[in-house]
Amino acid sequence: MKRGLITWDKTELPPEVFQRRLVVVRRVLAERQLPALVVYSDLWRSNEARFFANYMPYFNRALLILPVEGMPTLLCGLSPRTYRWIQSVTPIEDVRPAGNFAKPLGEVAAERGWTKVGVLNAGQLPYDLSQALHGGTVELVNVESEAVFHPANDDHEIAMRRKAAAMARAALDEELPAGVGKIDHEFVGQLERRLRLAGAEDLVILLTNGDTAPGPAHGKKLQEGYSVSIALEYRGHWVRMSMTEAFRNPELIPSGPPDILNEPVHEALSGSYPYECGHDEGFSANHQELYDHETERGFLMGDTSWHGPKGWEVL
């Protein structure tokens, strides 16, 4: 559940940031002789629209239209009562009802004399929406995400993700030692309260005592050495983090060489879904699971990492 109304702090993320990001889009569109780029967005595929226009939906679908000339337009599945809020937290002024999307997209194209538009990752559109748009009056041309979407090269993107990571790390540092002996529901409630008050809009918190895969709280007492994995969203910017209480207690550190069950892999995530970060191997969920044969327990550790000028580093 989102933490109330999302706001836009323009001192933290200035409007000029979005103008700079649009320059890249417009250059690619001009090279491909396309008048606009259409970006699909919903609750679970919001990263690209958020990156280009700060639009982060609570639910429902939208199409963000980024033209070569002029300001963005949003075809929105949300109620018109939300339009003023959208205009207050994004650089978008032109917000229109979506309908089935094909008709309003055709109307925008007709107004501006477009016969075709680029669509970001057209092959990843939901089936029903893809069918509707391809049956419309505008030709759709695929534009691959990696051509225009480079969050790991953007200083403000990195700064926002660092802020999210610092928020998560501070809360875990404080709450982990106090969790031993508590029922997992109680611990999750206290951790979530702390993170929500710090500014997290959304959270996924999974726990394990080392004898199972991490999962949601289900009334189990947390033992010494338990691990917590969280995914946290701060103003649309997601990070993932795992931390084990075991490494605060030398007696719980594996006495022999532990098995590394999964090596940390710096994989290029598509960026389509909220927990993912982007192409170019720029961000990665760098997590390890260590298994101790003596205690037959696993320990989780790892943070979201960024590949910068000095190589991979933890945010």
The helix content is 25-40%
CATH class of the largest domain: Alpha Beta
The name of the CATH topology of the largest domain is: Creatine Amidinohydrolase
Q: How large is the count of helical segments? A: 7
Spans of at least 5 consecutive residues with low confidence:
260-272
Oligomer: single chain
- Strand fraction: 25-35%
Q: By helix and strand content, what is the structural category? A: alpha+beta
* SSE succession: HEHEEHEHEHEHHEEEEEEE
Number of separate strands: 13
Q: Describe the main β-sheet briefly.
A: 7 strands, antiparallel
* CATH homology-level superfamily of the largest domain: Creatinase/methionine aminopeptidase superfamily
User: How many domain units?
Assistant: 2
- What is the gyration radius calculated from CA atoms? 22 Å
Q: How far apart lie the N and C ends?
A: 25 Å
Task: Walk me through what this model shows.
With 315 residues, the chain is an alpha+beta fold. It folds into 2 domains: 15-149, Creatine Amidinohydrolase, Chain A, domain 1; 152-314, Creatinase/methionine aminopeptidase superfamily (Creatine Amidinohydrolase), CATH 3.90.230. It has 7 helices and 13 strands. The protein has helices at residues 15-31, 47-53, 83-89, 102-112, 127-134, 155-179, 184-198, and strands at residues 36-41, 62-67, 73-76, 94-97, 116-120, 139-143, 202-208, 227-234, 237-244, 259-262, 283-292, 297-308, 311-314. The strands form 2 sheets. Strands 7, 8, 9, 10, 11, 12 and 13 form a 7-stranded antiparallel sheet that branches. Strands 4-3-2-1-5-6 form a 6-stranded mixed sheet, with helices on both faces. Strand 11 and strand 12 (297-308) form a beta hairpin. Helix 6 (155-179) packs antiparallel against helix 7 (184-198). The chain is elongated. The model is unreliable at 260-272 (pLDDT under 50).
